[in-house]
Specification:
The structure holds two protein chains of two kinds. By secondary structure, chain A is mainly beta. Chain A is 0% helix and 56% strand. Chain A has strands at 3-7, 11-12, 18-25, 35-41, 48-53, 59-61, 69-74, 79-84, 93-104, 107-117, 121-125. In chain B, the strands form two sheets. In chain B, strands 1, 3, 4, 7, 8 and 9 form a six-stranded mixed beta sheet that branches. The A-B interface holds A 37, 46-49, 52, 60, 62-64, 96, 101-102, 108-120 and B 1, 30-31, 33, 35, 42-45, 48-50, 54, 86, 88, 90, 92, 94-102.
């Protein structure tokens, strides 16, 4: 059974860089059939897609965050990571990682979805 | 940028049918999926590719998509179905994943 687990600091100072890692178990991140994605949810609010990555390194980023994000993959560790720079209080959220289906061969089709999701990790931006 | 609109909340009586809508420009030309999120839990996929149910999702969950509106229908709603529901689509013009704002379903 595929499982994803987010890890990283729960507290980040304003203007600094948020760094999170997602560890995939029960399956290979190098599968040609999937991308791997990050999604966040501010407290009490809805879901926001951050970006997704293929094992080869191809990425899709949310245009509204593109200037501040970098997603990378480490196939040797079966992990992918998120870096979000210049954070503010507005970046406080639960951050989820998830397998991004319907995306393969380096691109996403019209039909894609996230399943399964990690348990999420709360990151608070505060001094 | 492409937007998906959901009603913020709705309520349904146990045993009745809940219909949650998700609206977007020519949404029927795209594919929609739906997630259920209970308090303190991660989202769970309940419908993908407009109408398909993942294994383990009860048959009372169904989906459709036509015109400008996708719908998630829960037949014979149970107390355990009380949750937030989010629709999601892919905007190929950007390209970008888009989520609806979510609908809080109350079963009372």
């Amino acid at each position: 059974q595929l499982q994803l687990q987010e890890s990283g600091p729960g507290l980040v100072k304003p203007s600094e860089t948020l760094s999170l890692t997602c560890t995939v178990s029960g399956g290979s991140i190098s599968s040609s059939s999937y991308f791997w994605g990050w999604i966040r949810q501010p407290p009490g609010k809805g879901l926001e897609w951050i970006g997704s990555i293929y094992y080869s390194g191809s990425t899709y980023y949310n245009p509204s965050l593109k200037s501040r994000i970098a997603i990378s993959v480490d196939t040797s560790k079966n992990q992918f990571s998120l870096k979000l720079s210049s954070v503010t209080a507005a970046d406080t959220a639960v951050y989820y990682c998830a397998r991004h289906s319907g995306c393969s061969g380096g691109s996403c089709s019209l039909y894609n979805w996230f399943d399964p999701w990690g348990q999420g990790t709360l990151v608070t931006v505060s001094s | 940028s492409y937007e998906l609109t959901q009603p913020p909340s709705m309520s349904v009586s146990p045993g009745q049918t809940a219909v949650i809508t998700c609206s977007g420009d020519k949404l029927g030309d795209k594919y929609t999926c739906w997630y259920q999120q209970k308090p303190g839990q991660s989202p769970v996929l309940v419908i993908y590719q407009d109408t398909k149910r993942p294994s383990g999702i009860p048959e009372r969950f169904s989906g459709s998509n036509s015109g400008n509106t996708a719908t998630l229908t829960i037949s014979g709603t149970q107390a355990m179905d009380e949750a937030d529901y989010y629709c999601q689509a892919w905007d190929s013009s950007t390209p970008c994943v888009v989520f609806g704002g979510g609908t809080k379903l109350t079963v009372l």
